[in-house]
Every structure is written in structure tokens, then in C-alpha cells.
Amino acid sequence: SQQGEEDPQALSIQEGENATMNCSYKTxxxxxxxxxxxxxxxxxxxxxxxxxxxxKHSGRLRVTLDTSKKSSSLLITASRAADTASYFCATDGNYxxxxxxxxxxxxxxxx
Amino acid sequence: xxxxxxxxxxxxxxxGQSMTLQCAQDMNHNSMYWYRQDPGxxxxxxxxxxxxxxxxxxxxxxxxxxSRLNKRxxxxxxxxxxxxxxxxxxxxxxxxxxxxxxxxxxxSRLTVL
Lengths: 111, 113
Description:
The structure holds 2 protein chains of 2 kinds.
Chain A: E1 4-7, E2 10-14, E3 19-25, E4 31-37, E5 43-50, E6 55-58, E7 61-66, E8 71-76, E9 85-92, E10 99-101, E11 105-110
Parallel strand pairs in A: 2-11
Antiparallel strand pairs in A: 1-3, 3-8, 4-5, 4-9, 6-7, 7-8, 9-10, 9-11
Chain B: E1 4-7, E2 10-13, E3 19-25, E4 31-38, E5 42-49, E6 56-57, E7 64-68, E8 74-78, E9 87-94, E10 102-104, E11 108-112
Parallel strand pairs in B: 2-11
Antiparallel strand pairs in B: 1-3, 3-8, 4-5, 4-9, 5-6, 7-8, 9-10, 9-11
């Protein structure tokens, strides 16, 4: 069973717009991570937020975490065509210190 | 600075054939993982190794075996491939920092006919 579930499954926006992706999870977590995957490539770590944090920034990325709602959001500001990729949230799973991934959000940024 | 290296990148097998996917990391990480990625399913954990000499089952271990050959290398073996094992396989290693982010290889695309 998947711990994290991203929403929406697919998102298409124009360059310069902001993109928001959401992640919901089911059980308590220690931290939540966001990863990016370009087509045909491996996943790359973007940002981590701990369970005692509510918001975190890294460049054009902003992540929020609401543990009461068991949800997180990833905001990409001023999107670029190069941001086109799939984005995954990963949460502490049922296997010790391992992470469980959701099905991802496919983001398309149109030039 | 190679990070995580997987071989082969592509492989086509017939049902019943066996093969081994190789993975090596040069970051001196203790933990290593094998995931499979299927459309709409995200990544599912097959096996993991928390340290050299230990391996444990993940969410979908049936039909697979693993070997943690040394600290650098973690291989995944399909003894008798089935069409349901057609997938993209990713090896990852985990930083030993408290944050523990994963570093992924580029994937191995396997087709079982």
C-alpha cells in the first residue's frame, strides 16, 4: 500500500506561472521528501521537511507540511520549461527507515 | 563522481530466463535499495539492505533475490522472469545523514516477453 498520494496526477501550466502539487499520507511520519524525475531518468532529491516544520524554502521551491491533515504541498514559483518532469513525495514507510513513494504528479510547463 | 551506477540500462528477456541487475555506489553509504516503477504505481520497494551483510524484503519481493556483495554493490536477481516483471528498476543508496535522502541510479528498463 502506498503511503503518499500526490494530487493532481497531471498538471499543465504556462511558463512563468506557479505550480502547486499536493501529497497526502496515511500514518505518522518523521519527515517527508520531494523528488523530481525527468523523463527516462532516475529520481533526484529536491527538498526534505521534518515533521516539526511547517514550511521550508529552497530557491523557487516552497514546501509546506500540515501533520494534522497529513498533507504536504510543493510550490514551484515562476516555472520554466525545464521544470517539466514528474514529482514524487516520499514518506517514512512500513519498512524501518525506508521511504514509500506516491504515484507522482506529471508537470508540463509550456513555453 | 559517479554516484549510483546500474547495469544494464536495457534488457529483453523471454519468460523463464534469469538475469541479474547490478548496482554500485561510490558514496560509502550503508543502506541500499531496489525499487520497481510501473505506470501509475509510483515506486515500490522490492528489497533493501540496511548494511553490508543484511538484506530485507520490501513491499513486492516475490520473484526476486538480492545479494549485498560488499558495501558498494547490491545486485537484484530474477531467477525465472515473468511478463509481470516487465518494469523499470531503480537502485538507490541512502545518505547516512539524519535527513537520509536517497540517491538513485538511472534505471534499468526490463521487458519480459
